Amino acid sequence: MTDKIQKTLRDSAALRWGALILLSALTFSTYWFQDFFSGLKGLMETEMGIDSEEFGRIIGMTTIANMFGMIIIGGIMLDKWGIRIAGIVFGSIATLGGAITAAAAAGWFGDDHSTVVNYMIVGRILFGSGLEVLCVVATRTIVKWFKGYELALAMAINMGFGRLGSAMGTALSLDIGGGHVSPAVTFAATLIGLALILFLIYTVFDIKIDKQEKAIAGDQEKDDSEDFKFSDLTALIKNSSFLYIALLCVAFYAAIFPFMMYAPDLLINKFGFSQILPAAGEVIIGGSKALGAASVYVIFFLFAICFAVVPNNIKSKTLALGVKVVSVFLFVSYLYYMKDVLAIWLQNGAKTASLIPLGTIIFTPIFGNFVDKKGKAASLMILGSLLLIFAHVSLSVLNNVVIAYFGLVSLGVAFSLVPAAMWPSVAKIIPENRLGTAYASMFTLQNWGLGLFFWGIGALLKFVNRNQLDEIEAGNAVYDYTIPILVLVGCGVISIFLSFKLKQSDKKYGYGLEDPS
After folding, report:
1. In whole angstroms, what is the distance from residue 20 CA to residue 414 CA?
2. DSSP secondary structure string for all residues of 420-489
């Protein structure tokens, strides 16, 4: 009888993974909405008259609430309210933001240019207010269901859904919109609404598991040792090692996420990639080219999970190797079958840029596993920063398309390498009872960097091309991205400096950043 009472829903593998799927819908849809505008920048300019500065402003204002502590406030609310209420509240805020953005793009608030832009900004602010907190909700929920089970695998798959949303949003928005902005925005907003419905379904299981765990544990006092405390900020500010890694987080991500929002347009303007995918590159399923293109990304996603994530959670080395070999064989066969289509995709701005987040699904678990077993986290952060510099130099100063491909690959590797080394390092530098404060502070600082560079790249792009904006609009000239992207090289230089300082601190204080986890 006692054994029966001790069982909860999370002890069922089917229910655990079912809960993860319901939860990951929110991750997928919010990442889609965060990044899908990157594939529409050129169309927004020609159809809606939204210039580069306005584009940057719309994207940049997504972070404004988080700049002023929404992540911290949301974390406190999550602790007080619990997963269900926090998920519903912040999911509803994100959904409302998506709906307002879609309505503005469709002209529901008026067709005046400033009205459209301003209401799209309002929508993005509301969306951003819910976005980061939902990421925390997802993490807390996964820990709740998978602690003591396949926790690392579940987190990797959930993040994989997020990266898949980013990639598909970037690559498919033009296809979904049919050459117009409004349908693509409406679709992206609808995804969040549908995901919120799935989360509401999840709450039924969450209520049940809470009742079961309460029956097992009985009434216990809440442990508030990890609650956010403003007094902990003083201790963090005095910790030079924390400042190094926090500022590294700002510099590194400022050179990645803002770049990804402009990458399709850069490839189109600088290297002559296509904006509209040629008919020969279309994949049709059920009469839909969007559905056909989506199938390609799903196959890439499944390969990434089967090759890089699943084997790490198989105890038998022989079986793990077998899964990798079979995955590679099937994937290479698929690539050979699709080689002509993919060759055309690699000459399309949105499709090529979308491979950056998709690649992280493969590389991040590989590098994370390396850090766990071999260490060298500080050295890997230096290497990732060097790759970041090469990537942005190749995409700004140089004009060789082959080198540009290597630059994009380097960016994808750096995007996987540095986070895989950086986030575990925080736990070695900061005491466990201050980790919540540390992460919240880092995310807040990160959003300042993102907001500045989301807007700044667009504003700088408009400024350096100010003498030929009319010709660009008429299709007789293209944007010169050299200086805006060259600025991101500076972020890479700063990242290297901070990585070296972090390595020096490790030698001085013995954090063990170069040691295995």
Report:
1. 28
2. HHHHHHHHHHS-GGGHHHHHHHHHHHHHHHHHHHHHHHHHHHHHHTGGGHHHHHHTSS----HHHHHHHH
- Residues 30-63 pLDDT 10s: 999 999 999 999 999 999 999 999 999 999 999 9
Residues with Cβ within 8 Å of 265's Cβ and at least 6 positions away in sequence, in order, are: 38, 41, 42, 349, 479, 481
Q: Look at 42-56, 323-337, 425-439 and tell me which has the smallest mean pLDDT.
A: 425-439
Place of tokens 């200086």: 483
85 contacts 465 by C-beta, under 8 angstroms: no
* Angstrom distance (rounded) from CA 184 to CA 177: 4
For residues 452 and 249, what is the distance between their CA atoms, to the nearest angstrom?
14
Crossing angle of helices 83-105 and 113-146, in 10° steps, is 160
Alpha carbon distance, N-terminus to C-terminus of the chain = 40
Residue pair 503/382 in contact (Cβ under 8 Å)? The answer is yes
DSSP for residue 307: I
**pLDDT of the residue at 1:** 40
The set of residues, in sequence order, having a beta carbon less than 8 Å from that of 211 and lying 6+ positions away, is none
User: Nearest to residue 361, comparing CAs of 308, 438, 318?
Assistant: 308
- The token pair at 479 is 């944007």
